[in-house]
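Please predict the structure of the following assembly.
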Amino acid sequence: MARNSELDVAYVARLARLNLTETETELFQRQLGDVLKYVEKLRELNVNNVQAAAHGIPIFNVLREDEPRDWFTAEEALRNAPRQRDGLFIVTKVVE
Amino acid sequence: MTAKDLPALSVADLQSLLRQREVSPREVIDALQARIETVDREINAYLSLDFEAAAKEAEKANVDLPLGGVPIAVKDIISVAGQPCTCASKILRSYRAPYDATVICRLRAAGAIPFGKTNLDEFAMGSSTENSGTKLTRNPWELSRVPGGSSGGSAAAVAADTAFGALGTDTGGSIRQPAALSGIVGLKPTYGRVSRFGLVAFASSLDQIGPLTKTVRDAALLMNAIAGHDPQDSTCLNEPVADYAAALGHDLRGTRLGLPKEYMVEGTDPQVKTAIDAAVKHLNALGAEIIDISLPHTEYATAVYYILATAEASANLARFDGVRYGYRADNPKDLLDHYGRTREEGFGPEVKRRIILGTYVLSSGYYDAYYLRAQKVRELIRQDFSRAFERVDALISPTSPVPAFKFGERTADPLQMYLTDIFTCPANLAGVCGISVPCGFAEIDGKRLPIGVQLLGKALDETRILQIAHAFEQTSQWHKERAPIAATLQTALVRRSFSEGG
């Protein structure tokens, strides 16, 4: 398992699209360093022949018929939008 | 009993008064509103209330339905159509749920009335409700202490008699731990027993919705209403649902109760240990056979939990991008600035910390070392439980290693806060069910603080843990004790009603 010194909070924050202040970055670096040091105890275990459990109760491939049904109207879907116009979400400019 | 005393009742007792037409649903709603207006200033359990809608529903309530006319409080992370669903986060401050969660549809179908949303740690991330981005909820037993979390608002409301019963969610102990710290009953159902459609997702492989109530019977009554298959949640199990309330009253002779040796860890408060030892003796005297067992991978559970829960949270919370709903930063200069500042300004510190940790353990180069390894250790923990349940019907342990702690006592060191989940998070990892029931009090600084005992059951064996919890409760007095603030304010309320001639 990776050493906690490999965690670069500023880099990970960019991956997560989450701006942090310098104070937060330093604080998280230290606090999450402690957490990562704590979770290193998982290295003690031999897990070579263990299957990964994604859920406590395994169920797989739950499918339904692909049929149209009544759901939100555009108006309802837009009701919580921070910015909207003409039945559309307004997004921040993506292209130059 | 006067109408003003109604909020002190259990769901079952309220139901019988309603069915005998001794009170009307409208009187119940009015009494609850009066009580909340007097008491909640001190407790801060509620984030929003809608008594206008509740009164309308009360007028047409059918009291002969299973929960007909019974008001139920709802953790503010479960969607109730038209009501706010803030998750105690700035990022959802102005959001209103466009539809009812399946549990709310089911409660309504059973006649219950959702009337208010309760406080929580932001996005259910925490163990004290101190991470709420909105306000601090106080423990009704001692106002300088936390009610536990993350369903702290639901627990405090039930303990303060400002709710008859409530819904919470449990990802690593968030129903059971606040129930223990607030002196009430809390049930985490089996993973998949209750639909999560309409629940704002935190960690999808762990989250479950369940009841927080004054008595074990009330927990069974709420489970009767909310449990069962829902085609809108693909993780919801399509298995028959028992009549949990009808199954109560079963005697304990022949019940095999496992006492895991790993669940009496260092750091457990000696008064908690004493109370649990007494509860074990008590259950033994009721006829349960006590069997020493081992869950050898328990010490790894917290580490596994914080890797998996944060990984899943970082993915689930990616949806908060300031485009379709929620808070959006002003005047972004480009798309990256839009995302980065919206999330910086919208999320609180604990949510940010978990997004960072979760993103890291899933990132390229670290996925195998952290996330995949944690999933494998999760399998070992699951096997621990499977092996234990070959020998016993249920497991018994403390719910929390400590009673309610003071505000600020554990916030400086996130790891210390995380370790309060040590007895509860293994059940979420294994997907099994668990319940916390009051089993005594600790005395700290001259104050009495509630202690809870946890019973864990096999997957889909809610009936069994409810039966054991009920047998314990019915032969003990702990659940009859009320928080001092509940008693005092109730007297004040009655007095006020007399002075007003009411």
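Chain B touches chain A through 75 residues (CB under 8 Å). Residues 489-502 of chain B have pLDDT under 50 and may be disordered.
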